[in-house]
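Researcher: We are triaging several targets before committing to wet-lab work. For this one, the compound of interest is flavin-adenine dinucleotide. I'm pasting the protein sequence and the ligand SMILES. What I need is the predicted three-dimensional arrangement of the protein with the ligand bound, expressed as structure tokens, so it can go straight into our comparison scripts without reformatting.
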Amino acid sequence: MRAFSYARAEDASAAVRLAGASARARYLGGGTNLVDLMRETVEQPDALVDVTALPAAIEARSDGSILIGAGASNTAVAADLAVRTRFPALARAILAGASGQIRNMATVGGNILQRTRCTYFYDDASRCNKRAPGAGCDAIDGFNRIHAILGASPACVATHPSDMCVALAALDATVHLQGHGGSRTMRLVDLHRLPGGRPHVETELQRDELITAVELPALPFAAGSTYRKVRDRASYAFALVSVAAALDVGPDGTVRDVRLALGGVAHKPWRASIAEAALRGRPATADSFRDAADAELADAAGLRHNAFKIDLARRTVAATLEGLAGGDRT
Ligand SMILES: Cc1cc2nc3c(=O)[nH]c(=O)nc-3n(C[C@H](O)[C@H](O)[C@H](O)COP(=O)(O)OP(=O)(O)OC[C@H]3O[C@@H](n4cnc5c(N)ncnc54)[C@H](O)[C@@H]3O)c2cc1C
């Protein structure tokens, strides 16, 4: 590990100012991802700005929305009564990730900006365009079981690892940001990028831009939302494929509205807009759910070891929606 300075910011403005004073500063949340990457020398910041003193409150508003401070721990969000009742998919997604100890340390801001779990990214003996732009990608012809099936590029096939972000993408969350130029908001689905030719640029954030909060807009039918994660082990494993979904079925049995996002399949949490559009106004039946899943996965492309994820994603989408239509949220 290289030498670095450490400073604790008392508020967002101080955090941005402190980060701006160094060439390669990083914000430090719970450190459960960043410190690992520093040990592996993948991340080599010259300054850490500790942002764990930033607001961590979870504000359940009377209009049905919720504002979550970026400093809130993953555990606190998953345990919050308003989150569990208004947006159970979010609580379930968080609880499907990592372990109790890690969730106690991990913050909302850090979870959103956690980096890929591609093994070639972590291994500095491998070629990785994300770690060393222009170096090449050893995952493409390597062991690529956990890699992307949607939106990948010849430069990078890594996936975004967060469970929480998949639920946030489905639930139309907005991220509050503060940077050198002031504050702004951005839809969560617009924050992460697809890799294209520049996989080292992972987000649309500007230099030193800090996540200060996440906002979930009111969505009454999200009270029946769910998160389903398919993985190699029942706990302590990242998603092969995951689905966050909320379904609103009218009295005539047609889909009035739907929210759907996939995890484990792309460089960013994948909002399944094609499937959503295909479902609105259609009967809430197994056939419709399968057709919508097929439409969403039509452009999916497998690598040597991960082609099974295409069918797995189709089936997981269809099964999750069938479950919701039948009142099953597991
Ligand atoms: C063994 C293990 C298993 C795991 N399993 C899962 C899993 O199954 N599912 C899953 O989703 N996750 C899993 N994780 C990842 C875990 O969820 C993340 O490590 C955690 O959420 C990161 O949060 P943090 O606060 O510790 O972030 P940090 O490590 O502190 O930071 C991560 C990144 O975010 C940046 N950052 C932090 N806060 C802010 C902010 N407010 N604004 C801007 N940038 C910020 C940091 O600079 C850094 O780049 C696992 C981790 C481990 C170690």
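Researcher: Any quick observations?
Model: The longest helix spans residues 308-325.
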